[in-house]
Amino acid sequence: QVQVVESGGGLVQPGGSLRLSCAASGSILSVYNMGWHRQAPGKQRELIGTSSGGATYYAESVRGRFTISRDNANNTIHLQLRGLQPEDTGVYYCNADIISRSGSVGDYWGQGTQVTVSS
Fold first, then answer.
1. 68 near 16, Cβ under 8 Å?
2. Bridge pairing between strands 2-7 and 105-109
3. Which of 24, 92, 93, 112 has its CA 20 to 30 A from that of 41?
C-alpha cells in the first residue's frame, strides 16, 4: 500500500511564509514525478509546480515566490511559500507518480493541507 501525506498548512498573515511538506510512504520501489497543486475556493485545481529528474517547473503565478525542493532519499517534496497573499489561500495538494514494489504504477494524491492567508 502506498500513501501520500501533506503537512505544514495553516493561517498566515499577508507577506508571510509557510513551508509545506509531502511524504510518500509504503511499499515503494521508485518515486519519479512529484508535484504541488492548489485549489482556491470556488476555483478549479491548478498546478503550482513539479519536480522531475532533477528539474523543477513553476507556474507563472508563483514563480519567484514559491520554491520546490525534494529529498529523494526520503521520498519527500517540500514547498516553501513566501510573500503570501490572500489569493494564495486554498487547499494545497501533493501528487506523486510511484512504482510500487508489486510493479504497479500509479498517480497518488494526498488529502490536501489548508493554507489561509488573512490579516
1. no
2. unpaired
3. 24
| Residue 40 · residue 87 · CB < 8 Å | yes
Listed in order, strand segments (DSSP E) in 1-119 are 2-7, 10-12, 18-26, 28-39, 46-52, 55-58, 66-71, 76-81, 90-100, 105-109, 113-117
Distance CA 49, CA 11 (A): 22
Q: 88 — phi, psi (to 5°)?
A: -85, -5
Whole-number pLDDT of residue 54: 87
- Residue whose C-alpha cell reads 503565478 in the numeric block: 61
C-alpha gyration radius of the chain: 14
**Average pLDDT, consecutive stretches of 10 residues, N- to C-terminus, the chain (119 residues):** 96 98 97 97 96 95 96 96 97 97 96 97
**Of the candidates 61, 55, 48, the residue with the CA atom closest to the CA atom of residue 20:** 48
